[in-house]
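2024-03-11 09:14:02 INFO queue: dequeued item Beta-phosphoglucomutase, len=256
2024-03-11 09:14:02 INFO validating residues
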Amino acid sequence: MDRPELSRATQQIRVAPERITACLFDLDGVLTSTAAQHMAAWKQTFDAFLREREGEHFSPFTERDYLEHVDGRPRADGVRQFLASRGISLPEGSRDDPPASDTIHGLGNRKNETLQEIIRQRGVTPYPGSVRYLEAVRGAGLAIGVVTSSENGASVLEAAGLSRFVQARIDGLVITEQKLRGKPAPDAFLAGARALRVAPAEAAVFEDALAGVQAGRAGGFGWVVGVDRTHHADELRAHGADVVVSDLADLLVADR
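2024-03-11 09:14:37 INFO prediction written
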């Protein structure tokens, strides 16, 4: 694991480089374990769609498909990207298409309906190490924002008990409302920095998705942290992570 040179202290614990005054966290897979639930919802949705379309030639949606085409992207972008990788084109439709519609938005809404059911069954759990890190960051006086492509950002934060830490939230609803480009474009992170009134060079980005790390690097952020939950540390570095950790608590370094 990489060990960054950290110098901002709280209770003799260093949490970020001295130049960093704000932290922008992705949600699913960084603060909460809901990335696995998103993956399960996408797989269930795409496998059913592909099985009906391809019959005996059905090729299932894989973890590699999730990481390369869907993870970290706005819902409709993920649908487009994955279907394009399989040579499939669907009508765009509209955001209020029913989940049964075979359109880009309909398929995305089908996934969200499946996700909501999975969350109802499993609940939302924050990573203990992420809670420790959030507490240390808040104790150090750094601003905290959440930047997520999910339209369920507010409900997931509330269910996980993390809303108390968050001073700004840029989620899928804000991305649509403000017509921001989705990750790997840096627009959402830049909006998060503006909401916290900090320059990108003074803010850190924490991401588990390749597209998210790429967005942090493209936005000129002062520190890009890759969170490796699925054993793809090398790819996170290749996409622009300054440091890669398996848990945010690994960033807590005692001052000596």
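2024-03-11 09:14:37 INFO annotate: Residues 9-33+125-254 form a domain with the Rossmann fold fold (CATH 3.40.50.1000).
2024-03-11 09:14:38 INFO item closed
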